[in-house]
Amino acid sequence: TQLGSEVEVHKLWNRRQSTKFNGVSYIVQRGAEAVYSEAGQAQIKTLIEFYLENARIVREQLEAIGISVYGGVNAPYVWVKTPNGLSSWDFFDKLLQTCNVVGTPGSGFGAAGEGYFRISAFNSRENVNTAMQRITDTFKS
User: Fold this and answer.
1) Percent of residues, the chain, with pLDDT higher than 90
2) Mapping DSSP to helix (H, G, I), strand (E, B) and coil, where does residue 104 land?
3) Span 2-10, mean pLDDT?
4) For residue 10, how many other CB atoms are within 10 A of its CB?
5) Confidence of residue 2 (pLDDT cuts 50, 70, 90)
6) What is the Cα–Cα distance from 55 to 72, expressed in whole angstroms?
7) CATH number for position 42
8) Rounded average pLDDT over 98-105
9) Buried b (16+ CB within 10 A) or exposed e, 119-141
10) Cβ–Cβ < 8 Å for 78, 121
């Protein structure tokens, strides 16, 4: 130390880290504050509408080819009942290999998720339209 006494480095390092990372950083605080401003609320509303529109596109495109879907109305995720009795992972593989599209196998959410697949609407409109075109071309009757 400054006075010449010995101290454990671990204790000093722990003190430094605890002090340095105590609390939320300034930029994160300002970002959180901005969310509650009028402009922030308008931007959030626009983003929510955009992603829910993506979810609507996914839902309607899949329903149009006879695939059962759930959700995507008040949340940006669409749950798909895997077609033709495919397992969650077999459907994942089919989408990846045939359509170059990825999502989340339902079995990743536990045993009750088997036979389902989650598609996220968090993407650009162009990517959503491309993915839906590839999927509908592959699975339409």
Assistant:
1) 80
2) strand
3) 84
4) 8
5) confident
6) 5
7) 3.90.1150.10
8) 97
9) bbbebeeeebeebbeebeeebee
10) yes
Residue 18 lies in a domain: yes
Matching residue, tokens 């592959």: 138
State how many domains the chain has: 1
What are the structure tokens assigned to 18, written together?
């605890």
Supply the pLDDT for residue 59. 98
Alpha carbon distance 69, 46 (integer Å): 25
- Domain enclosing residue 26, as ranges: 9-139
The secondary structure of residue 134, as a DSSP letter, is H
Amino acid at 138: T
Assess if residue 33 is contained within a domain: yes
pTM of the full predicted structure?
Answer: 0.79
Q: Which of residues 15 and 51 earns the better pLDDT score?
A: 51
pLDDT at residue 114, rounded to an integer: 98
For residue 96, is it within any domain? yes
Structure tokens at 130: 């491309």
State the Cα–Cα distance between residues 92 and 72, nearest whole angstrom.
19
